[in-house]
Amino acid sequence: MITLFDDLGSDVALRGAPARVVSLVPALTEAIEVTVPGRLAGATDYCTHPSTLDVARVGGSKYPKLDRVLALRPDLVLANSEENRPEDVETLRANGIPVWVMRAPATVPHALASLRRLLTQAFEAYEPRWLVEAEELWRATRPVRARAVVPVWRKPWVILGRDTFGGDVLRRLGISVVYAGHEDRYPRPELDELRAWFTDGSADVLVLPDEPYEFTDDDGPGAFPGVRYVLVSGRYLTWYGPSLIEAHRALDAALSAVLEEGVFTTDDP
């Protein structure tokens, strides 16, 4: 028996590298399956990558079916301090299940450092090549080339604020998040306030991911008439793991295209 400590400082007692793992975090699901394939026994309904993953499903991240998790008799459950409820973590621990909670990362380096510790310590894996490559790709921070409003939900509008992983991803690509100095990580401003950033010239572009809320050309941009916008993959913007390698190229291309050519909204429903 070995005792490790998760990102929150809680004990995680393991009998060697876990062979049956339940992941309650989509990004961690992908990282584990790519690095140490075959260890996952269960995952949430939102764990969509790798696309070939075939494991038992345990409901959503925020409200997992704990009876399903317990029935899988995992050696380890993976959770996140932002995505998963503390009471669910405590229930699993009370039933004798070790739970590793990853702290919601504020930056790309924080996320990769946490993943390195999880993979090399808990799973006793060699440092994966994708992690080293991701560190190199995301090491530099480009000069600011645009200022963005970045909603992640609507009804009500929820926006990227301070110390968010997605905000740091954009910052490293030269996009400053206008709410980065807000006291909340996810502010909930009124629509008029959001529009004012553009009318007074303080924001240049609206960045709309397809998760957790699925913004589309027909849902979201119309609330900002005349504003330049770009639709991006929420996985590329907010997932930490192997997807960061493709995310660098894909996000940079999408942002560069809209800044150079521009796609403007026209409707105001």
Automatic annotation (TrEMBL):
Family designation: Belongs to the bacterial solute-binding protein 8 family.
Protein name: Helical backbone metal receptor
InterPro entries reported in the protein's UniProt record: ABC_Transporter_SBP, ABC_transptr_periplasmic_BD, Vit_B12_bind_prot
Domain Fe/B12 periplasmic-binding as annotated: residue spans: 35-196
Keyword Plastid found: no
Domain of life: Bacteria
Statement: the UniProt record of this protein carries the keyword Signal: yes
Keywords: Receptor, Signal
Gene3D superfamilies: Nitrogenase molybdenum iron protein domain (3.40.50.1980)
